[in-house]
Amino acid sequence: MAIRTLTVDSVARLGASFVRVTLTGDDLRGFTSTGPADHVKVFFPDPVTGELAVPTMTAEGMKRPEHGNVIARDYTPRTFRPATEDSPAQLELDFVIHGTDAPASTWASSAAPGDTLVVGGPRGSHPAPTGMTRVILGADLSALPAVARWIEMLPDDVEICAFVELEHPSDAGYLDPELVHRANVIWLDGGSGSLERAIRRLGDIGDDTYLWLAGEADALVPVRRYLRRELGLPAKQVKVDGYWRRGEQGRDHHAPIDPSDPED
Ligand SMILES: Cc1cc2nc3c(=O)[nH]c(=O)nc-3n(C[C@H](O)[C@H](O)[C@H](O)COP(=O)(O)OP(=O)(O)OC[C@H]3O[C@@H](n4cnc5c(N)ncnc54)[C@H](O)[C@@H]3O)c2cc1C
Fold first, then answer.
1. Ligand 1 neighbour 257 (Cβ under 6 A)
2. Rounded to the nearest whole angstrom, what is the distance from the C-alpha of residue 174 to the centroid of ligand 1?
3. Cα(46) to centroid(ligand 1), Å
4. In angstroms, what is the span from residue 243 Cα to ligand 1's centroid?
5. Contact, 69 vs 83, CB < 8 A?
6. Residue 87 burial by Cβ neighbours in a 10 Å radius (0-12, 13-18, 19+)
7. Whose CA is nearest to atom 23 of ligand 1?
């Protein structure tokens, strides 16, 4: 996994909840990201000491630093623009701003041009599934950058339906009109159980449909249970990814969202 030291080129507020940070730097040479749900690891300074601890890549693999507390969070590379004759390479990350005791959100809310950000990966890319005629996406704000990538990357002949939980109406502007037009985007109010209700209303789901759902882990547990256990859909047709969990810092999204019923 390449570790890249980048510089903030610009910062923009998008709607009520997002800050878009555009990064640049020679270290973007060789960056590539081809899967809709790709992520990079972003390293943040310790909010208490201000110290930035970053692993290094060695011939034996990744080595933790001798000092400091490594604080890393996963983010979706929303857009990558390779360098051209006229402009340097640029990587855009979109951060949901959500509180104070949160290193990533805190960093993004005060980011300014010239700041440094260290980014690792992506470690690998999983391409969009092939052979499906319909893709259902379900997301809260944290997975909205990935939803945008899914819509951009799916072939034109795949029907898309995206359910997105919003906390503030202005966040609907996050998706460009052509993406909203391409997919059948349905905005949900973000109230408890709204995604589960929307998915249940779809009725029967055939083997021509792939479902990708990501967001707050606890909210996704009943959705996953419905799809995998009630409808009996196989794992290859359903991906449910707990991007964060309420009350938990730096959740590892590889951990099962429902430990009582781990993936099979
Ligand atoms: C593959 C992947 C891709 C992701 N892509 C993005 C992305 O593009 N943009 C993005 O904003 N997030 C994304 N996330 C989610 C992000 O990594 C988490 O939200 C992360 O926990 C934020 O770190 P933090 O330091 O701000 O908060 P933490 O220190 O992890 O958590 C502090 C507190 O804030 C709460 N919290 C964490 N995230 C949120 C949230 N989104 N809303 C409300 N409360 C929250 C926690 O429950 C905890 O109580 C992605 C996650 C994964 C696994």
1. no
2. 17
3. 16
4. 7
5. no
6. exposed
7. 104
What integer pLDDT is reported at residue 160 of this predicted model?
Answer: 98
Atom of ligand 1 nearest to the CA of 101: 32
| Ligand 1, atom 32, residue with closest C-alpha | 102
pLDDT in tens, 116-128: 999 998 988 898 8
List of domains in the chain: 3-120 (2.40.30.10), 134-244 (3.40.50.80)
Distance, in Å, from the CA atom of 85 to the CA atom of 83, rounded to the nearest integer, reads: 7
| Pairing outcome for strands 3-14 and 18-24 | antiparallel
**Taking 70 as the threshold, does the pLDDT of residue 264 lie above it?**
no
Look at residue 124 in the predicted model and tell me its pLDDT. Answer: 84
CA-nearest residue, atom 38 of ligand 1: 244
- Please choose from 142, 150, 167, 248 the residue to mutate so as to test ligand 1's pocket, defined by most ligand atoms within 8 A of CB: 142
Residues sharing a CB contact under 8 Å with residue 36, sequence separation 6 or more, in sequence order: 128, 146, 149, 150, 152, 153, 154, 212
**Residue range 71-112, pLDDT digits in tens:** 999 999 999 999 999 999 999 999 999 988 899 999 999 999
Contact 150, 212 (CB under 8 A): yes
Burial 50-85 (b: 16+ CB within 10 A, else e): eebbbbeeeeeeeeeeeeeeebbbbbbbbbbeeeee
- Amino acid symbol at 136: I
pLDDT in tens, 159-169: 999 999 998 99
Average pLDDT across the chain, whole number? 95
Instruction: State which H helix or E strand residue 162 sits in.
Output: strand 159-165
User: At 248, phi and psi to the nearest 5?
Assistant: -120, 135
Q: Give the distance (Å) from ligand 1 centre to CA of residue 204.
A: 32
